[in-house]
Every structure is written in C-alpha cells, then in structure tokens.
C-alpha cells in the first residue's frame, strides 16, 4: 500500500517561511475577531460555555510564550506569573470571568510582545528542523479563533462580523447520487509524512474495513426538517437513553439557534436573523441529535475510520492522500475553509474537492460527528505533552472530522481529529450518515422518502 507524501506546496516552502505565514495568518484572524468589539464585550462572558474573549487572547499569548519563547528559544520567561491564570486545566470556562484577567489593552501588549520574541526565535534558530512547535502553536491559535467565532455566535447584539455568502453550486448542478460506495479493504489511516500532524493523528496504521455506503453530501436543513416534522424529537425510539434524558431536560426541539415564525423556521447567525436555508448542511446539532436522525432514517453515523477512508483513500492507487482531492493545498475551489464565509455552502458545492469515492464537502462547511469515541491509535505516544490529547481519551468525547467554514486550512486535513462532548451544540457541527454495503437501500425507520439528501 502506497503511503501519503507531502504536498509539493508544503515541501517547496522553506520551514521558516511556512511557520511565519502560519503564525501571521492566525494573528490577523485573532485581531479581526477581537478588534470589532468594545472592551466591555471582550471582558463579558457571553455564555457559561465559553471564556471571555479576553481570556482567549491572553491564553493564546501564554501558550506561544511557553512553547516558542521558552522552549524553542530557551529564553527568559516574559510573564511567568500568568502561567497559572491561563492554564486551561486549572479553571473551568464558567469560572474564568472571576479571575484577575489582563485587561484588553494589556492582553494586546502581551500578544505583541510574545510574537516579537517568537519571530526572533524563528529567524535566529540555527536549524528550525521541521518546525513542529511553530506549527503546533499556529494550529492552537487557529483553534482558539474558531472557539472565539463560536463565542461570537453565542453573543447577543447586532452583527459585527461580515463576509460574503458562499458561492452557489455549479449551474446547472450535476446530478449527484444520494450515496456513494466506499469499497471494502485495507487503507492507511493516520498521518505519515506530515511534520505538523498532531500526536493524536499518529502513528499511521493499516485498517481493514468492510464496504459501506456513505451520504454523498452532509445532511441538509431540508432533510433534517423531515425528521423534525415526523416527530423525531418526540420519539424515544431514535435516541440513546442519555441523549433522550438530555433532550427532555434541556427542552431541545430543534437545532441550536433555530426558532419558529408561524410555519417558517428562522435561525440566528452572528447577529442576523434569517430563514433557514434548505440546501445548506444542518449546523449546530449535537451528537445525540445526529445519532437520532441516523436511526430514524434506518442508517447510522460512520465510524471515524470509515469517514477517513472515504475522505482520503483511492482504491485505484491504494494511496491515502492528505486531502480528499489529493495532496495539493486547499484553495477556494476545493472547500469552504478559513472563515472566508460565515456559513456552510449549499450541499453539492465544490465538485473540485470531491473524494475518490465521489463524496463532496468532506472538508470544510461543517464538522461531521462520527460514531467513534476519542481514543489513541495503536502505538500512540503523547507529544509534546499529555494534555494535548491523552487526557481526553475515553468514552466521554465523540470524534468529529473534516473541519468547518470556521476552520483554517493549517488545522484541517483528512487525518485531523476533533473531539467534543456528545451534548455540545454551539460548535459548527453537522453530520452525514452511512449504511453497511450488505444493508438494503431502504428506509428501516419512519419517514420513508426523507432520506436521500441530494443538493436540494
């Protein structure tokens, strides 16, 4: 089996320049997400699920100081007094507003001072090696930027973020199958030659899977509304017991941020209230909701291994590529990434980003829940610290794959693993379903006729 090799765009860029670009791109986004708000909104807690934005700002700087200034540069600590304050494991998000946090102006000065030192370390290092620590820090900042974008979604008030709508699918839209076949057999799962892959993506290993059918596109708002209209939220048959209890306790009857105006479903999106677009992938649903929908449809959520095989394995060559379309770095024709847009693109978009199996939008648009718990791969070794991944292993978190419109390309590839609690809905998550190749292509639950979500 041929293993994945690095994309030419990556190997052609010197490590120092690649690291500088990644760090600068993340910082521009951090500034854009914070400079649009007054200080009072930066220090406020918009939801107990999230930190005040000013905490994220200083935490980003503190992590950069720890790993690039002190560890990579072996330099004197700038603000060792801040280490306990911005340790994410010491303080729950709900408790962080009560801490003696840096004020916004102080947090900005800290960010700038650390960055000056980090760039000097990068420029003066005799040999930056593969630049892993710089790549890890850039990915960390982008991950917090996505979290801060989720905080923007939770805040109340007028819109302060603006972006163009995603491009429409090709016209006339090509006819898509409702589902695509991923043949059975072995494939290489996990990162091989990517120097910036994180510890939970390693080591690469062979996984042998039976064949299965996968939705060609993520489940759309229109498809999900059929589940709702058929009483899916009111029927415990489709729900995991703990999910049913949570649904009742939290009085969940629709995706987060949805509300009804007569017969019309509306959603609140970054301060704007608008009709729910029928063709977009459904967004802001928990794992329990995704699993209930799949059961109602007579299908199931794909395992993490099934998702990755569909996203990167080419049965014609036996290769596992870095992205669904191959090894070339993402561009706007491939996927909806990097906060270029503030919403998913319609299902059926980005035909240039199709996987070998024919599935579309496996990267970008919405994170996709999988059936799998977050655990380490065979031979896993924590690097560079246990708290990045290992402390989260177990059955409390479910794996999400593929990134969203809010995910930067530096933190999005076919091997990248995200994880969260199955109740979580404020994240930019949707899903697609699958069935085993031996299963008949018929509806086994209620709602016959709902389940074939083409780009409609």
Report what the structure shows.
The protein is α+β, with helices and mostly antiparallel strands. It folds into 2 domains: 8-154, Four Helix Bundle (Hemerythrin (Met), subunit A) (Up-down Bundle), CATH 1.20.120; 179-221 and 255-436, Alpha-Beta Complex (paralog of FGE (formylglycine-generating enzyme)), CATH 3.90.1580.10. It has 10 helices and 14 strands. Strands 12-11-10-13 form a 4-stranded mixed beta sheet. Strands 1-4-14 form a 3-stranded antiparallel beta sheet, covered by helices on one side. The protein has a 3-stranded antiparallel beta sheet with strand order 5-6-7, with no helix packed on it. Helix 4 runs parallel beside helix 5 and helix 4 (53-72) packs antiparallel against helix 6. The longest helix is centred in the N-terminal third of the chain and has 23 residues, at 132-154. Mean pLDDT is 93; it is low at 1-8 and 443-456.
Record keyword descriptors for this entry.
disordered N terminus, 2 domains, Four Helix Bundle (Hemerythrin (Met), subunit A), disordered C terminus, 456 residues, 10 helices, 4-stranded mixed β-sheet, 3-stranded antiparallel β-sheet, 12% strand
In terms of structural class, how would the helical and strand content be classed? alpha+beta
The radius of gyration over CA amounts to: 22 Å
CATH architecture of the largest domain: Alpha-Beta Complex
Number of helices: 10
Can you summarize the main beta sheet? 4 strands, mixed
Quick structural summary:
The chain is α+β, with helices and mostly antiparallel strands. It has helices at residues 8-12, 15-34, 39-43, 53-72, 104-124, 132-154, 221-229, 241-249, 287-296, 304-312; strands at residues 179-182, 185-189, 205-209, 212-215, 258-261, 264-269, 272-275, 313-314, 319-320, 367-373, 398-401, 418-420, 429-430, 434-436. The chain has two domains: 8-154, Up-down Bundle (Four Helix Bundle (Hemerythrin (Met), subunit A)), CATH 1.20.120; 179-221 and 255-436, Alpha-Beta Complex (paralog of FGE (formylglycine-generating enzyme)).
């Amino acid at each position: 089996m041929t293993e994945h090799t690095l994309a030419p765009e990556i190997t052609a860029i010197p490590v120092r320049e690649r690291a500088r670009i990644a760090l600068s791109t993340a910082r521009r986004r951090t500034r854009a997400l914070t400079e649009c708000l007054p200080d009072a909104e930066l220090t406020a807690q918009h939801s107990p699920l999230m930190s005040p934005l000013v905490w994220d700002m200083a935490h980003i700087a503190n992590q950069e100081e720890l790993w690039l200034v002190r560890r990579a540069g072996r330099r004197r600590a700038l603000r060792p007094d801040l280490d306990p304050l911005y340790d994410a494991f010491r303080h729950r998000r709900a408790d962080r507003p009560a801490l003696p946090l840096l004020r916004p102006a102080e947090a900005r000065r800290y960010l700038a001072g650390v960055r000056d030192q980090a760039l000097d370390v990068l420029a003066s290092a005799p040999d930056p090696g593969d630049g892993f620590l710089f790549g890890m820090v850039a990915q960390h900042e982008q991950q917090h930027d996505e979290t801060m974008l989720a905080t923007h979604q939770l805040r109340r008030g007028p819109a302060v973020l603006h972006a163009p709508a995603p491009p429409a699918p090709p016209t006339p839209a090509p006819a898509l199958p409702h589902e695509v076949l991923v043949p059975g057999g072995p494939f290489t799962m996990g990162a091989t030659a990517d120097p910036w892959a994180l510890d939970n993506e390693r080591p690469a290993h062979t996984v042998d899977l039976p064949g299965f059918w996968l939705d060609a596109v993520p489940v759309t708002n229109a498809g999900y509304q059929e589940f709702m209209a058929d009483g899916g939220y009111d029927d415990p048959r489709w729900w995991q017991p703990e999910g049913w209890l949570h649904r009742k306790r939290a009085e969940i009857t629709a995706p987060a941020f949805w509300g009804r105006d007569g017969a019309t479903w509306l959603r609140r999106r970054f301060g704007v209230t608008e009709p729910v677009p029928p063709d977009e992938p459904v967004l802001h649903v928990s794992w329990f909701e995704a699993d209930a929908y799949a059961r109602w449809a007579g299908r199931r959520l794909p395992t993490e291994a099934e998702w990755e095989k569909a996203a990167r394995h080419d049965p014609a060559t036996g290769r596992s590529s870095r992205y669904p379309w191959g090894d070339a770095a993402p561009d706007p024709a491939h996927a909806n990434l990097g906060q270029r847009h503030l919403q998913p693109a319609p299902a059926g978009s980005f035909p240039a980003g199709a996987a070998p199996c024919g599935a579309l939008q496996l990267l970008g648009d919405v994170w996709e829940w999988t059936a799998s718990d977050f655990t380490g791969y065979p031979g896993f070794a924590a690097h560079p610290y246990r708290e990045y991944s290992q402390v989260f292993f177990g059955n409390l978190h479910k794996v999400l794959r593929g990134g969203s419109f809010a995910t930067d390309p530096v933190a999005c590839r076919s091997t990248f693993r995200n994880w969260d609690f199955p109740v979580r809905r404020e994240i930019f998550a949707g899903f697609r379903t699958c069935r085993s190749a031996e299963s008949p292509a018929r509806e086994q639950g209620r709602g016959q006729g709902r389940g074939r979500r083409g780009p409609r």
